[in-house]
Structures are given as structure tokens and as C-alpha cells.
Amino acid sequence: MAILEKSVVTENVNRKIEPYPRLRYMGSKYKVVPYLVDKFAEIPFESALDAFSGSGVVGYALKVMGKRTTSNDFLNFSSTVAKAVIENPGVTLDPEDVELILAGNVDGRDFIQRTFEGLYFPQEDHEFLDSAWSNIEGLPVYKKELAIAALCLASARKQPRGVFTITTFRYDDGRRNLRLPLRDLFLEAVEEYNSVVFDNGQKNKALCSDVFDIDPADYDLVYLDPPYAPPKDDNCYIKRYHFLEGLSVYWRGQKILENTKTKKLEKRFTPFSYKRTIKDALRELVHQFRKSVIVLSYSSNSVPSKDEILEIIREEKQHVEVHEVPHVYSFGTHSAAQRRKVSEYIFIAR
Ligand SMILES: C[S@@+](CC[C@H](N)C(=O)[O-])C[C@H]1O[C@@H](n2cnc3c(N)ncnc32)[C@H](O)[C@@H]1O
After folding, report:
1. How far is it, in rounded angstroms, from Cα 349 to Cα 296?
2. Whether the predicted pLDDT of 70 surpasses 90
3. Least confident residue range of 50-59, 135-144, 235-244
4. Hey, which end of the chain has fewer CB within 10 Å, N or C?
């Protein structure tokens, strides 16, 4: 196993990925993307699936590389971002669209103001979110997803540490993003998302499914970046990002746990979160996508270990290589901060 170094061959691709809007998302691969791109560049393939897309950055890299890209995540929020920047063949939000979104509340809705009063943002920001949503509702496809993605990015940036697990401003360190009105952060986010929209000449797609429901037939290469089962601690995305998940669909069809202080949504089960189910889930995943080249990311301080993963992959695949990316997580809860200096493995199985 060799420690990877960034290559100059893919510098151009990486330059185009650089402006991709950054969200503090647990396990996001912004820092690992250049290494992934180098590895992807060595493999002949035309179509690709990013099966656990999260922030969308890896699917975006595949799009930049000219591949026919499908992005999937079981969260609506992630899937909306992928629809806005990966499936979207070039539609942007014009100044008139933005003006319309900023026009007053057209239907008097106040769900966000009523539900989250005193929790995450000052009431003017909640009013802005209700009002913006009342106008976004009527936008055509891609403009709508871009606007929702920008609302979510703005909201995440106005939360200390980007998560919605705390309802007081005790972490308010006076940073600019925490003080600016959400409306201003939204305008910045619109610009950022607009700037990365392009057509790569392929029919790209965003799905919102459980990974095990995806038909594996259509992909030459599948990138797997499941949640890492931590030895202690938890890795629940809903607990951290419930507000973004709700906001992405205006909480329609979502069940708020009313007795929680954070007004979080019901947890979504995934077998990748637990030590007792992770090995079987990985085995099932490798079996499901056995006909494709599989590229799997996993972190060195999670279970199962590198050798156990190799064993699982070898049950289906003859040729497996492992690469190591020295990786310092930018995300950190207190206990995660202690696990910071971990490496990221990239398994490539053909
Ligand atoms: C490690 S993150 C992916 C990060 C992503 N590669 C990035 O760069 O931002 C794992 C993602 O898997 C999603 N997920 C977890 N279980 C899933 C399942 N059973 N089916 C589909 N997506 C799932 C989570 O919502 C989360 O976004």
C-alpha cells in the first residue's frame, strides 16, 4: 500500500472542482477529491454512480471529468443539491429569479417561524425562510433546486460548526457568517452555486434512494462512501442536519419529534451506522455492484478494519488495491476532534 501524492496530470480537473460550494458536512471528501480524481483518471469508464453523495462534491468531480454521472443519497437535502449541480444541464438563477424569491411572502406561510422560534436563528431569518419558500414553490425545475440548495447552504453557514444539535448561541464566536442576515448569506450562496453549474454533454441524474434499492446495471464505476461506523460515538446525519433535510422539502412528509428540544426529525435507519450491521451491509453492497469497478472510501479509525474490508471485497472481486490518503478531518465534534489524525483509505476493486 502506497501513500498517495497529488498528481499534476489532473490539475485542470481539480481547478474546476475548487469553487464547488463548501458545506461543513460530516465525512465530506473536499480534501480527498484530488486523490480520487487521480485514481479515477487511471480507470477506463464512461458512466459512474456516486452512491452516497452527501455534499455532492465527488459526483461533481465525476461530472467535471466528463462522465455520465448519477448521484444518490437517501437524504432529500443531498439529493436536491445533486439535482441543482449535477443533473442540471446549465440552468442558473437569473437576477429576476432572485428578485422574485426575495419579494414578500406570497401566501402568508409561517411554519418555520412558529416551529423554530428561539431555536436556531433570529426571527427575521425564520421569516425570510418562510417567505423565500413561498416564492420558490413556483420556480421551474433546476431553478427551484438551486434556490433550495442555496437556502440550505446559507442556513448551514449560519450555524456554529454547521450542525443543528445545539439551540443556543453559546458557540457564537462573532464570526461574520453568524452575524450576517440569512438573506445576505443566501445571495452569496446563489452566486456560488450559479458559478459551478455547467453542461458536460452527458445525461446526468440525481436519485434519492436507499442505496440497496438502486439498480446496479447501468454503471461502469461505482463510488462508495458510506457513513463510517465509529468505534464509539454515533454518525447520525439526521441528528446533525435535520434542519437542512426539513428545509429542503419545507418539512412536507417529515415527522418532527415534538418532544425534542432541537425539533429534530425521526432518525433514518442505515446499517452503516452500527458495528453489528456494518460488515454485512458492506458485503451486500459489494455483491450488489460486483459487475462494476468499485471505488470505496473508508477511514482508518472506523470498523471494520482495512484487512476485514479487503476480505469482504475479495469474496466478489479478484483484483483489489488499497491506497492511503493522509487525511485530517475538518469536521469535529469534541470526541471526533480526538480522532482527527486519521487516514483515509481508497480501495479499488475490479
Ligand atoms: C460519508 S457521507 C458521504 C460524503 C460525500 N462523499 C461527500 O463528499 O460529501 C455518507 C452519506 O451516506 C448517506 N447514507 C447513509 N445511509 C444511506 C443509505 N442506506 N442509502 C443511501 N444513502 C445513505 C448519508 O445521508 C450521507 O450523506
Report:
1. 8
2. yes
3. 235-244
4. N
Measured from CB, residues less than 6 Å from any atom of ligand 1 are 25, 27-29, 52-55, 57-58, 73-75, 78, 210-211, 225-227, 237, 270, 272
Q: Domain 1-90+205-224+276-350, what architecture?
A: 3-Layer(aba) Sandwich (3.40)
| Distance of CA 299 from the midpoint of ligand 1 (Å) | 14
pLDDT of residue 334: 54
Distance from the first to the final alpha carbon of the chain: 17
**Domain residue spans in the chain?**
1-90+205-224+276-350
How remote is the CA of residue 270 from the centroid of ligand 1, in Å? 10
User: In this predicted model, what pLDDT tens digit does every residue of 220-243 receive, in sequence order?
Assistant: 999 999 998 877 777 889 999 999
